[in-house]
Design brief:
The chain contains four helices and no strands. By secondary structure, the protein is mainly alpha-helical.
């Protein structure tokens, strides 16, 4: 994938990207566990006598906890990135980009353009 902006090389951005990838994977796992839970209910009902329901339910609850933890990690990484000098420089650049029609013609920029 082609890099568009200089901040993609910064550790704060990489941590945020990793947290985002982990959150997406956790959300996918939660959806899959939810589908298995619904399928087990359709097959045997949600009764204590249906062991597949209990297993699917536990799997779903664990997936929910994992997704919540991944979201919290992403939220911390996002806050750390936005509070960092790199994140603040990116915010200034995005504000300039939104305000300047000529700047919108070229989204690729360098660190020197941002810091100035």
């Amino acid at each position: 994938m082609k890099k568009v902006c200089w901040w993609e090389d910064m550790p704060e951005w990489r941590r945020l990207a990793e947290a985002c990838n982990e959150l997406e994977a956790a959300e996918k796992a939660e959806r899959e566990a939810g589908s298995r839970l619904l399928a087990s209910v359709q097959i045997g009902g949600d009764t204590p006598e249906n062991p597949s329901w209990w297993e699917a339910r536990q799997s779903y609850l664990e997936a929910v906890e994992t997704r919540e933890a991944a979201f919290a990690a992403w939220e911390r990484a996002d806050g750390a990135f936005r509070a960092s000098p790199v994140g603040q420089a990116r915010s200034r650049w995005l504000a300039r980009l939104a305000a300047d029609p000529v700047a919108r013609q070229s989204a690729v920029t360098t660190k020197e353009e941002i810091v100035s």
